[in-house]
User: Fold this.
Amino acid sequence: MLDNLISLPTVLVCTFLSTLVVAIFLAFHWLAGRGRLAAGYWCVSMWVGTAASAFLGLRGIIAPELSIGLGNALVAFGYSLTWAGFRAFDERRVSRLAVAAGPAAWGAAYVLSDSFAADMSLRVILMSVIVSAYSLAMARELLLGRRREALPSRRVIALLLATHAAIYAARIPFALFAPVADGAAVSPWFAAFALEIFLHTLIVAVSVLILLKERSEFIFRQAARSDALTGVLNRGAFMEAAARALSRKPQGGVLLLLDLDHFKTINDTFGHQAGDKVLCRFASAAIARLDEGMVFGRFGGEEFALLVPDQDLDEAVTFADRLRQDTAALSVGHYGRLISVSVSIGVASALLCEGDLDTLIAAADCALYRAKADGRNRVGVAGPAESLMQVAGRMREADAVAGNRSVAL
Assistant:
């Protein structure tokens, strides 16, 4: 009954038209320079898929070497290019051998073995293995990419690709126990799998478009949250991330305020270009020291902030001193001249500030001011005195506000 409802030529025509439309759209996207290499691979894979659908749709009209042999080789090549697109999307190296493996395996079996070329069941089994392998590889690439860029649709698309691999692999037992011969009537299971291929083509087409859209949005979000010069979090993004971290551990964490010493002198002596280079080198040195969960950002000018959520005060002070030593070891070259760099660091524990971020920043700022006053290139630690000063300051502010309200009344 299912084979009466599903027309195999109609499904192939629909597959041809859908891949053609997406291929044209991706060609414009690629030529506009928005998708880079991944869009290029996906664009070519869609054109290859369009050609494959055309050859397969002409089965019985043109020579089988073209409709079956070349058509299925193009299908395998289209899948390998789609896999290459997912690799390139996450900036991983694409192996030419892996891209060529699927189509080469099909071509070798079809050209070198007459029994394989004449047996539809063997052809179905080999193509099922090739398509399932590439589909699972695509799903794996998407999941691995989550570590670098957690786009919302990655898991869903990976699940759909893994499901397609499982469905395609299910063709193997059908080919073994309910074989289909060339020229015979289309069996129900073969018609059902042909429909699934059409649906999968639509899913992949929509998926790559969604991924390209999400990547663009991710880049814009990152640009809005990042400092344009150093690439670390800007002040607003740091405050947001630090507040989230403190809300999870109100009594845990330590804040470091880092201020490059004599930075104005560097700018005045060597120029602002040299100052920018110093900022970038310092940020890179600090990033190299960071552990997972630490929040690092630029407050503005030569001042940076670092929230260390999983260390106590003593551990954070030791960590801050390592950062100070790393900075002192930097030697930034600028037009044949070497620029020495040092940093003063103020450290404050959230435990002393009751987890309040504003109070924590103010306490660390007091410690930083003391480190500067004591000669720079050192670590200052905020004690209870700084914390009490901040509390007293907040009380004075509250009293002032209350007094203004009384006058207004």
Notes: The mean pLDDT is 83. The CA atoms of residues 238 and 297 lie 6 Å apart.
